[in-house]
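Good morning C.,

I know you're traveling, so I'll keep this short. The sequence:
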Amino acid sequence: MARPGPTMVLPRAASPLTTSPTSATPATSQAPPPGDDNEPAFYDIEQEPKVFYYYVHLTVRVPVSKPYLLMSDVSPVEGSTMWMSCNLENGTGPIQYVWQYETRSSNISAFAQGNTNIINVTNINRNHTGWYRCVASNAVNSESSNRLWLDTIFGPDIPQIDWSK
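The tokens, ready to paste straight into the viewer:
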């Protein structure tokens, strides 16, 4: 009768798996000592059995979800201060944010970037009126928010009379 090839019994996880919405990693990166509720892998060989312990460090990188943009005031008064926030449901850090502005004539420019999801805009003026969006990126992917219109309230301007002419 032919003897089957080597067989293996796989061990259970060497340590509990800790998960969060943005990552999953083993609770410890050190291998637990034999007998601490970990099972070895046994190979069926013709000599004495050999015991092998396998420990895996698992890193799960979660792609960024589609960001959504929030503004503290979508119709700020000229001269005021407001903030914008680029929010995500999921994504493994580090996450980079790029803030984009689109004028009425469809010119798009990046006006800020960094690793923070909130920016403050001080001394709002009529030139800030336009479409805004944020782009969130990590090692896995990059996603853009939908545009949000900022409508600055201004005027009427104080008339100026020049008596010198």
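Safe travels,
E.
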